[in-house]
């Protein structure tokens, strides 16, 4: 038994289950516990939630809803076009096409198990398979499209439970000198920022370069470059090749692995200390909300993110403390946050009038939000965050 439990975030709902009624009778909950595998150094949820419960035809998250992300994907596609031969591109977890729509190549294919999202890209002439990523699908795509010279996947590989099969399925489709690019939240950043809200049902894993490298050791692929990104609260972008491929290995790889060693990514004690910081963060955040309630301040939530579901449910924050959330995603509006049952509203022009505090559910878009809400800030409106520690901004 190599897996050691270090964090218990309590009873949690399905983060994508934005509710039609405020108090449903049959809401699904599971115990959100996090474990560290001493052998592979992988950090994962102890209990995986069945994928069909999470990724279905009512999937709410639309990657194109933030300007920051639209720009980030446009810039990335320009860069990849320059850097690699991108005649044929496959994206695993293509969401609403925010990345693929930047390409005009001969062979652009998406994979997206959430049927409502796959429908969007299929209607934009981006061939999209509405299936889960596995070896069978990979073989089917191979028959229909052959090999790919670029396989890209952002915020998806960490959602797939059987990582060995997911990697095999990529190997099967990747050209000899092709590049597999993945990006996911970085475990180092989670530890540094105490951003425990990166743990929720969909995030079966939070990767480090160390764990990705150990995982690839079981395959015929290896990392040849790593970029650190500010997106999604701090992510890593891994460039992966076949061992027989002709790409050279950048010194960033060893540098990142060494940095991770220095912060103790390979040691259970690091995670036990993190767990204590998380408990402290919960108490401090709750005190802030309690105090504001006592002083009769108007408090709302800004960005009903999946991440914030972990915070709200772990810290027992509900409509006693947060009047409502605002969110730009249409299919969240008019609904209620999972587990915590807080109404979600459309951000109409005057909605922040007379609001004193806004809890930043979308803390990862702080800059974009602060830029947008200049008037609110200038007229005395404040934000609350829990990252890197609970505070008023
Ligand atoms: O990995 C995942 C990430 C990429 O997306 C998925 N498992 C699910 C989802 O997680 P999330 O909800 O934590 O992601 P975001 O991108 O942090 O969500 C931002 C939310 O905030 C969106 O619902 C849009 C909203 N928003 C807003 O209302 N006003 C965002 C901005 C920038 C704004 O100005």
Number of strands: 17
Q: Which sheet architecture does the biggest sheet show? A: 7 strands, mixed
Rg computed from alpha carbons, rounded to a whole number of angstroms = 21 Å
Tell me the quaternary state: single chain
Distance between the termini: 44 Å
Bulk shape? globular
Ions, cofactors and other ligands present here are: ligand DWN
Following the backbone from N to C, one meets helices and strands in this order, namely: EEEHHEEHEHEHEHEHEEHHEHEEEHHEE
Mean pLDDT, as a whole number? 96
Helical residues, percent: 25-40%
Low-confidence stretches: none
Number of helices: 12
User: What structural category do the secondary elements indicate?
Assistant: alpha/beta
How much of the sequence lies in strands comes to 15-25%
